[in-house]
Records
---
Amino acid sequence: GAVVSQHPSWVICKSGTSVKIECRSLDFQATTMFWYRQFPKQSLMLMATSNEGSKATYEQGVEKDKFLINHASLTLSTLTVTSAHPEDSSFYICSATRGNQPQHFGDGTRLSIL
Amino acid sequence: DQQVKQNSPSLSVQEGRISILNCDYTNSMFDYFLWYKKYPAEGPTFLISISSIKDKNEDGRFTVFLNKSAKHLSLHIVPSQPGDSAVYFCAASPNNAGNMLTFGGGTRLMVKP
């Protein structure tokens, strides 16, 4: 099946640091990538939808200046959490899709802000 | 307002028996439904899907049933195996593609040997 790689898998950093998370589709060209956030024992909440070469579409309540998304190519999207604070600690998951295919998910990134 | 709900946060089943996971939705625009399986610290893995033009889709031990009039779907796993223990999310999409998903809250399935 399709493989989506997410890196890093775990980040621990100090408050105020900016953190970049990469999402790569390894065996297909993803026209759309999605970024989700999951709090403990809760569902995946869509943060933003990213199409290659265009600006990301953010869900209501998600700060676009806080969560910078870049989708520079058909195989790579990045999420940068700027000036991260403890409340940004969460599990971030990306997914990738092409056309009408189901989304394929990365393994997620656990972000811990001290 | 949750558009996709999984009312059972957890389910415990004996190995070899049937597991039935339920999901309800409220948005009539949803016409494509998917089930994902998720282990801790991993991303969800696609299991099975169903389009609104069908009421049943089967893939090996996994069968998804859709009742459009009741806005209800269920995932049946039979026979259940200990390796099936995970969190299961149902997801719904407003197009027949599954690339715009709204997830339910998940049900943790525990299959006991």
Note: Chain B touches chain A at residues 9, 34, 36, 41-46, 49, 89, 95-106 (CB under 8 Å).
---
Amino acid sequence: DGGITQSPKYLFRKEGQNVTLSCEQNLNHDAMYWYRQDPGQGLRLIYYSQIVNDFQKGDIAEGYSVSREKKESFPLTVTSAQKNPTAFYLCASSILGGITEAFFGQGTRLTVV
Amino acid sequence: GESVGLHLPTLSVQEGDNSIINCAYSNSASDYFIWYKQESGKGPQFIIDIRSNMDKRQGQRVTVLLNKTVKHLSLQIAATQPGDSAVYFCAEEYGNKLVFGAGTILRVKS
């Protein structure tokens, strides 16, 4: 089945640690995105990538980093510089940047303990 | 900018009634708009889309209306069912990325 997969579904991190969230898609989509969602709130764009080896900051990129070494993969690292990392993280992909619908993964809930 | 502390508005409707969810978008140059439905703990799912050269588009039980003059988008759900309870987001294509609105919680009362 084609789709977009995020792992893990739940992730716990100690303060001061970096953690990497996985996002893989087999839809042959060019564009991939990472969003953050806080309880009862909307989606805020962290980073996006339109092509391999290129990515752009979104609205809340501070404390996060990404890579796009392969078309299928767009991992997000939440660094220790992110002061409030506890949130629901959503990855999405689309054929071309924003001109068609984006397909979302099921999300990763990150909790700092 | 940051929207910490800003909580989503809620629309409560009776089962069987029609629902209308509204969204104001940001950029008059946006060319493409999507409505998403998000159930608790899950990723958003596509409902319906519309391009800027259209004013209205219908799907199964859903209709999207676009008013470019006032930069307003609405989603109409006919005969609302309990399974429609979710958070609904509009998104606009701007600068080659999707920008999401704040969202609306739809609660369906049986």
Note: Chain A touches chain B at residues 6, 31, 33, 35, 38, 40-45, 48, 50, 58-60, 88, 90, 92, 94, 96-107, 109 (CB under 8 Å).
